[in-house]
UniProtKB/TrEMBL annotation:
Native source species: Acipenser ruthenus
EC number: 2.7.4.14, 2.7.4.9
Gene Ontology BP terms: dTDP biosynthetic process; dTTP biosynthetic process; dUDP biosynthetic process
HAMAP family recorded: Thymidylate_kinase (MF_00165)
Transferase recorded as keyword: yes
Protein's name according to its UniProt entry: UMP-CMP kinase 2, mitochondrial
Chief location category: mitochondrion
Length: 301
């Protein structure tokens, strides 16, 4: 078949052949009508080093999930002309010590979808542990949150990423004096960003060991991250009971069960530190006592 083709037409053909020493070569041949093929080029094929990031992740890493202060900072610097509020956020970020170092007291982060009981639990933990209660994004950024929530993912997520670095500065300071309880931190930023960016089903999420779940090397690492999970119907009941205006993302969570599952699965895949998952469906008192036991075990408190 190929021989007939070669004799009748004039064309270039590339084939791959291996030499006796096991090397792989790309052989380019040229055929003229009715004549034997002529080798016109031969290239040695070498194995390329594995790319740092899988191609499918390139639209996530440092475009919706940021792994360094500089990367997030640079995005808001580019926005200063079109979003004047960026200047004020950058000024606050300038004041925070990059690579904030954690103090000697434990830092405990409470994560979870809206209405899983984070606010309730963190307030109780603050009282019992006589600690500091912080949140991300920190209060100093609250006035601009709606402004950046209206921006495209690249900018919005850079805002939240800088919020984590500013919170880290507060965490470092407070953890020198007492235990610190944090209501949402990098897990929320990464989980919501990944779940929003990755279309399709749960299977479309980057695999559990993907670098996309890697904790930023320059971001203060907490001692314990607790992920509160609640049955969807119980969460909906609590949301209703709370009667608070839903965020755009929360409305999305309610309307889109798959998005909610992707957020939760992304939370679970983040490593170093990974979340410790707690069923927060029981009563406030039961959830509180289970988390206190966890803190005693993990943080020797
Ligand atoms: N804190 C925080 N929220 C994020 C981030 N990315 C997306 N979100 C979404 C999660 C929530 O649907 C929404 C509001 O989250 P927050 O917990 O900060 O606000 P709020 O305290 O009103 O909600 P919650 O206490 O969780 O019911 O923003 C992020 O990086 N940090
Ligand atoms: N363990 C619990 N059992 C029943 N209701 C709860 C529990 N924890 C919190 N709630 C109620 O559910 C609603 C949402 O709780 P909240 O702490 O605001 O959640 P989040 O901060 O995660 O959004 C509130 O009305 C709160 O009183």
């Amino acid at each position: 078949m190929l021989k007939d083709l070669v004799k009748s037409e004039e064309f270039h053909l590339c084939t791959y052949v291996s030499s006796e020493d096991g090397k792989l070569w790309q052989q380019c041949v040229w055929s003229q009508r009715g004549k034997e093929c002529t080798e016109v080029a031969k290239h040695y094929i070498t194995v390329a080093a594995k790319p740092e990031y899988h191609p499918t992740l390139l639209n996530i890493i440092n475009t919706v999930v940021y792994y360094s202060f500089e990367d997030a900072y640079r995005v808001l610097q580019e926005c200063k002309e079109c979003i004047p509020e960026s200047k004020e956020v950058l000024e606050l970020a300038d004041q925070c010590m990059k690579n904030s170092t954690k103090g000697r007291f434990p830092v405990i982060v409470i994560e979870g979808l809206d209405a899983t009981g984070k606010t309730t639990l963190t307030q109780s933990l603050q009282e019992i542990l006589r600690g500091a209660l912080l949140r991300s994004p920190p209060g100093c950024l609250s006035q601009w949150r709606a402004r950046f929530d209206a921006e495209p993912p690249l900018i919005r997520r850079a805002f939240y990423a800088l919020g984590n670095y500013i919170s880290a500065c507060d965490i470092a300071r407070e953890s020198a004096k007492s235990p610190v309880i944090v209501d949402r931190y990098w897990h929320s930023t990464a989980a919501y960003a990944i779940a929003t960016e990755v279309g399709g089903t749960l299977e479309s999420l980057p695999s559990s060991h993907s670098e996309v779940y890697r904790w930023p090397r320059d971001l203060l690492t907490p001692d314990l991250v607790v992920l509160l999970t609640v049955r969807p119907e119980e969460r909906a009941r609590r949301l209703l009971a709370r009667g608070v205006e839903k965020t755009r993302e929360e409305a999305e969570l309610e309307a889109n069960n798959l998005f909610r599952q992707k957020v939760e699965e992304a939370y679970r895949r983040i490593q170093d530190p990974a979340c410790v998952v707690i069923d927060a469906s029981p009563s406030k008192e039961e959830v509180l006592s289970e988390v206190l036991l966890l803190i005693q075990k993990h943080c020797n408190l």
